[in-house]
Amino acid sequence: MVLGNYTVSRLVFLAAILAVTSCAQAEISISSANDVCTVTSEGKSYELQLTPPCSLVKVDYKDHDYFQYDDSNVFIVAGKPAPLAQLAKWSVTEDDNCSLQSQAVIVTDEKVQLSVVMHDALICPDIGLDEKVYRDFFDNMMTK
Predict the structure, then answer these.
(1) pLDDT for 18
(2) Contact 96, 126 (CB under 8 A)
């Protein structure tokens, strides 16, 4: 009977963890149509100030594409890939689809905030970014 109680307690604990984790994650989608990039969250769409096509940037070593700070999830979106000639000072290839423009999308309790566009900083959606870039976008948005 003790083993049975242990198993039930363990299942309840795991279910609680899954419930908290699923509540903390915000889902967004990125689309490019009619020369406009949009982000959609909770059924609402917001126009980004990036040149299409746009891509969601992955986090360089995580299984998701955002960093979480308190109750906010920070996503970064890259604009149109730059010509390889403009990327010559970095060791990237055309297949890396790197851009020189990005914009953060911050989702807090279903409320979406968009950062200003960052220009001339290398952003490669498939290579990913370090956490400090996400933190910089978040800190700059929260001080406004």
Answers:
(1) 33
(2) yes
Mean pLDDT of the chain: 83
Provide DSSP, 88-110.
TTS---GGG--EEEEEEEEEETT
**End-to-end distance of the chain based on CA atoms, in angstroms?**
57
Please answer whether residues 124 and 56 qualify as being in contact, where contact means their C-beta atoms are separated by less than 8 angstroms: no
Spans of all domains in the chain: 28-142
Distance between CA atoms of residues 87 and 123, nearest Å: 11
State which amino acid sits at residue 52.
P
**Is the separation of the CB atoms in 56 and 30 below 8 Å?**
yes
Alpha-carbon distance values, 82 to 18, 48, 61, 78 (Å): 40, 18, 24, 10
DSSP type of residue 20: H
Q: What is the pLDDT of residues 13-59, one digit of tens each?
A: 333 333 333 334 568 999 998 899 999 999 999 999 999 999 999 88
Distance of CA 51 to the CA centre of its chain: 17
Measure the CA angle with vertex 96, ends 57 and 94; round to 5°.
145
pTM listed for this prediction: 0.80
